[in-house]
Amino acid sequence: MQKKIEAITEMLMNDYQQGRVIDEIKTFDYPDKNVVIDILEKLKMIIYPGYYRNSNYRTYTVRNNISILTEDIIYNLIKQISIVLKYVPEYKNADVSVLSKEAENITFSFLEKIPKIREYIETDIAAAYDGDPAAYNKDEIICSYPGLFAIFTNRIAHELFLLNVPLIPRIMTEHAHSLTGIDIHPGTTIGKYFFIDHGTGIVIGETTVIGNNVKIYQGVTLGALSTRGGQNLRGKKRHPTICDNVTIYSGASILGGETIVGKGVVVGGNAFITTSIPEGAKVSVKSQELTYNYDSSRPVERKDIELDSAWFYQI
Predict the structure, then answer these.
(1) Which residue segments constitute the domains of the chain, with CATH numbers given?
(2) Cα distance between residue 103 and residue 87, in whole Å
C-alpha cells in the first residue's frame, strides 16, 4: 500500500510540471471562501440587527453586539483583501505592510457605505411586500425570501466591486447563487425598490443597469448579445439598461449593451428582446394557439390566447 501511495504521489508531482493554469502554485495565499461567507453572514447581522444574531456573543446591548461584529469583520476583511490585492497589477509585488494599509483603507471605506446599503435594502423589502400578495408580513420577507437575500448580497458585493476589490465580491454573489439559483454579477448597478419574485434561474450580467421600482420574475436573463469577443469585451457595456418602473415576467431574455427598456415597460413571459423598447410599451410573444383534447368522442378545439392584460400577469 505504501509503495502504491508513493507511486501515485510521484505520478501527480510529474503531472504538475506541464506549465498549465491548473498546475500553477501561487507564491501568495488564496482568499478563504469560508471566511468570506462568514463576513457576509456577520454583515447580515449588522444590516438586520433585530433579526439575525450570533449566539456565541454573550452581550446584553445592541451597541456591544454591533461593536464585536464590526471588529470581527474589520479584522477578517482586511486580511482577505490583503490577500486578493495581489491580483491587482500595481500591488503584485507590493510589501505586506503596503497591502495591509491599502486593505485597511478599503475596509473602512466599505463600512462607511453600510447606512446607504441599509437604506436601499429597506426599499427592497417594501417593494417585495407591496408587490407580492402572498407576503403576509415583512418579517416573512426578511427571514425567508431568496430574492431578498440575493439582492442583499449583491448590494454588499457591489460596494466592494466599486472599490476595485478582486475575487471577494464574486465569491459572495456566487455563494448567493448557489443558495438561491439567482445569479447577479457584483458589477450590476441596481436602483431602489428592486423586487425579485420567486427568482430561480434569474441571470443578471455585469454591466446591467437597473433603475428604481423594477420587478423581475423567475427565469429572466439580462445578458450579453454575444460573448464571441471573449476578453476583448472586458469593460465594455455588454448588458441591457432597464429603466424605472419596468416589470419583466418569467422566462424573458433581454440582451445587449445597447438595449434600453424604457420607463414603465411590461415585458411578457418568454419574450426574446435584443433591441430597445420605448417607454410605456407592452411586449409579448406572438399569440399562441392552444389545443384541447378532451376525449376521443369529442372534436379537437383550438383557441388563440388573447393578448389582454391578464396574459402578462401569469406566473
Answers:
(1) 28-181 (1.10.3130.10), 188-315 (2.160.10.10)
(2) 13
